[in-house]
Amino acid sequence: MATSVPISDADYLRILIHGHTAFELLRTGLEFDLFQKLEDSGGLDVTETAAALGVEEYPARVLLLGLASLLLIEKKDGKFVNAPIVRRKLLKDGERFLGPLIDIQDKIINKTLVDFAESMRQSTNVGLRHLEGPGDTLYSKLTATPDLQKVFYDNMGDASNRAFEQFLEYYDFSGIKHAIDIGGGDGTNSVKLAERYPELEMTVFDQESVTRLAADKIEDPSVRKRVHFHPGDMLTDRLPEGADAILYFHIYEIWSLERNTEMLRKCYDALPEGGTVLVYNFVSNDEGTGSLSGGLVSPYFLALASGEGMTWSAADMEKSVRDAGFSRVERFADLGFSHALVVGHK
Ligand SMILES: C[S@@+](CC[C@H](N)C(=O)[O-])C[C@H]1O[C@@H](n2cnc3c(N)ncnc32)[C@H](O)[C@@H]1O
């Protein structure tokens, strides 16, 4: 259950200004497994913390002071213990462990966002210069660095998992025979759909090195038979034929509105009469004032991922689907996790 922390507007601003330090305090606490050690022991003082972390008392005291000032730990009967939010989100067996998100911020995003202002001036992803590899998007660069690619997909899988569970409960797929999952990533979503619908065929369309990653993961032989992989470039290659539905999940946020409309037109052309496109994405509100997570993730798309995307709104998604030619369009907004689903019927 969510709890709130008392914080003045001056302290809120202070955390933003010292954001880098606040992030490093939190990440270092995780690196030293401090939160788990506090939990397992029922609380530690400075001397015990130093021994548990294998460091001297002075640095242990710096870390404990910082984390306590950020209200992530608190002192009870002379010992430091975890605050409720740490138990929920910073312990591996907590309600929702945020380790993969902290990892991608640390290893991929933070060092590139120093180029946010320059990316604004040039209206492109200048931050990409910090990464090795081919191409002009984060996705193609990651193909050259498997360790970073894993960090990316660990977070992507984790983030889309919960949003996908919600989609599965919400949308009935039983009328669909074969769906293409454009930018289907490591295949997590396609596999789950194939498990839920035993007749359904799925085709994951993604970059070659990514589809390889996905193919390796399927264990169930019936699912393995029905989940196909089609390596290709969604921007330049033709879509595979023969499907009656196309999933466009967490792809809309990557590209510009114009490019999305163009790609959805390609989906329209690849579908038979009566076919369906499903655009499912994290969205901002139509006023452009939130959510907080939408506001915080959008600079990543400008400065790094593609140089042209952001957390667009459900209204933007609906307009693109209509402009692509779909005659009947349904919008399901206000879903959980700030997601919206727009369904276009040909
Ligand atoms: C944000 S992830 C979305 C993954 C998945 N659809 C989900 O909802 O979890 C974007 C995916 O698009 C793929 N992608 C990006 N650019 C691509 C391109 N030009 N051609 C094919 N796939 C691409 C990436 O490899 C990545 O797997």
Write the topology of this structure.
Layout: H1 9-17, H2 19-31, H3 34-41, H4 46-53, H5 57-69, E1 73-76, E2 79-82, H6 84-89, H7 99-109, H8 116-122, H9 138-142, H10 146-170, E3 178-182, H11 188-196, E4 201-206, H12 208-215, H13 221-226, E5 227-231, E6 245-249, H14 257-270, E7 276-282, H15 292-305, H16 314-323, E8 328-335, E9 339-345
Parallel strand pairs: 3-4, 3-6, 4-5, 6-7
Antiparallel strand pairs: 1-2, 7-9, 8-9
Helix pairs in contact: 4-5, 7-10, 8-15, 14-16
S-adenosylmethionine binds at residues 137, 139, 156, 160, 183-185, 189, 206-207, 210, 233-235, 249-251.
Keywords: ATP-binding, Methyltransferase, Nucleotide-binding, S-adenosyl-L-methionine, Transferase
InterPro entries: COMT-like, COMT_C, SAM-dependent_MTases_sf, WH-like_DNA-bd_sf
Protein name: Methyltransferase
